[in-house]
Amino acid sequence: MASDLARITVTIPEDLLAQLDELTARRGLAPNRSEAIRDLIREQVVEESVGDKDVEVVGSVTMVYDHHIPGLTQRLDEIQHEHLDAVISKMHVHLDHGLCLETIAVRGPSGQVHSLADQLLGVKGVEHGKLVCVAAAGSGGHHHHHS
């Protein structure tokens, strides 16, 4: 592994370096700045790759909604049934008497997954929601190497 590494020099402002050190400490990497920088680069590369509509992605659509709104639950279910090949699993949690949290595990071409998320999050009555996804193929099962 060591022969695959290249050494570089980076010049950054001291306040940004302090923020990097805080990040490494929160992620349990301290004092390994190199691993933190590698993680940030990997994260950006993955984020860029999911922009390609044909890239295979995995992720989750998380939303909060009021299940008392007439037809809302049925509409969300209909959308998921229209995308059976992309929906892997669903978790539904009652937050209080009216609000529900739903997290849907998804997988498929980025364009299809984003379309599914847009349809779900665009349904009237969904109060909050977000799609989080990463490239499925080529992500290499990201491994941390701590010394």
Describe this structure in words.
- It is a single chain.
- The chain has helices at residues 14-26, 33-49, 72-82, 110-121, and strands at 56-66, 87-94, 99-109, 126-135.
- By secondary structure, the chain is α+β, with helices and mostly antiparallel strands.
- It folds into 2 domains: 11-49; 56-135, 2-Layer Sandwich (Alpha-Beta Plaits).
- α1 (14-26) packs across α2.
- The radius of gyration is 20 Å and the shape is elongated.
Concise overview:
The protein has 147 residues and is an alpha+beta fold. It is built from four helices and four strands.
CATH fold label of the largest domain:
Alpha-Beta Plaits
Given the helix and strand composition, which structural class is it?
alpha+beta
Arrangement of strands in the largest sheet: 2-3-1-4
- Number of DSSP-assigned strands: 4
Low-confidence stretches: 139-147
**Beta-strand residue fraction:** 25-35%
Total helical segments: 4
From the N-terminal CA to the C-terminal CA, the straight-line distance is 13 Å
pLDDT average, as an integer?
Answer: 85
Any guess at the CATH architecture of the largest domain?
2-Layer Sandwich
Instruction: Give the overall shape.
Output: elongated
Question: What is the CATH class designation of the largest domain?
Answer: Alpha Beta
CATH superfamily of the largest domain: ACT-like. Chain A, domain 2
Percentage of residues assigned to helices: 25-40%
State the domain count. Answer: 2
Specify the biggest β-sheet. 4 strands, antiparallel
Radius of gyration: 20 Å
Reading the helices and strands in chain order gives: HHEHEEHE
